[in-house]
Amino acid sequence: MNSREYIESGILELYVFGKLSEEERLEVQQMAADNPAIRTEIAAIEQAVINLSHSVSPNISAETYDKIRAELLGNDPKIIQMKTKTNWSQYIGWAASVVILLGAAFMYLQMNNQMNGIINKEIEKNKSDFDKMQKTIVTLENKNKATESMMEILRDKNNTIVMLEGQAAMPGATAKVYWNKATQEVYIDAQDLPEAPQGMVYQVWALKMNPLTPTSIGLLEKATASTTKMYKVDNTAEAEAFGITLEPEGGSATPTMEQLYTLGKV
Amino acid sequence: MTQEELLPQIYKKDDKAFTLLYDMYAKSLFGVIFNLIKDKEEAEDVLQDTFVKIWKNIDSYNESKGRFFTWILNIARNTAIDKLRSKNFNNNQKNLSADNFVHILDDPSKTNNKIDTIGIQEFVKKLKPKCIQLIDLLFFKGYTQQEVSDELEIPLGTVKTQNRNCINELRNLLKV
Known about the structure:
Chain A is an alpha+beta fold. Chain A has six helices and eight strands, in the order ααααααββββββββ. The longest helix of chain A has 79 residues.
């Protein structure tokens, strides 16, 4: 009998069902040992009936599960010992793994946080450093520009330089006027004027002498002042003298002569 | 898990062995036991006795005695039949052959309503009535070929092959 015929005979089903005589059972086992197709067939038949009986089984109550478990694992002192021993080492192993895992996770998070913190701080620091440097550069550039333009003003050959001397109100004060007659531009160097008091402002006047006619050519307001204290005021076509008075904020229509700080003839 | 992978684990008789054994076989054995006993509480007692016997005798089992499932199936059936033969079950025994495993499926209170087995239950109902009888007597109730031949009035020589055809039908339905 070949293996196909043997399988088709139906003997393997009865083998799985446990309904063969001792002799037949040994014969099947011998055949199975020699023939993989028979072994596969046996496993498939077994699976079919396991699934079948499983599917027609009512639910087993949790109490019965507990009872069976307790009876099998709990009553035999030898098994209790083994169980305890096994569980002990098993739990230690698990516990250790869990601890290591948690530890690793914790360390990872910690390191991550720390590193992130450090990196973020670094980035922030670098950013603020960079911002500061940017500002410095801008400031320097502005200063440089201001200096350059001041140099241009000072070096211009067309400039008339008028020294304004300190007057009765403030004898120590001096100022210089750079007046470019070609372009009519007027710059005031207020380096040696004291800081105007609160609520007051310096006002620049172009003066004609006969008769004395003052014309306001601008205020030395802080907003228009560069760090160099060089002020550009209104263009002036003709002037015989320049004077600076201290006036209330906003300036005055006519100079307050008691507060004439500096004066100089062209 | 194949029998070859399972057995070394089971022999250890530890927690894991119990869990494996129970998870793999408890429901199948209970299906067989309940089909014989018909009373859920009594059947659960038999299941417990069955597991105790398996556990106690597991050292005496080896693969030369046949499939492990066949070995525990025989323990389950024999324990259930012993129970039926005891005084309390004399009345029920008369009805033994009038009922089969498929009738369990018609009582929703008794069956497993888990989704994964509902499909199988539907397949099982598609089996030919002849096959249901054959499988019920040979597999679930553990009748001999002679007993089946007498009960179903079919020639003794055809029991094996008819059963083979029925199991093939089942395997086709279950795709095993």
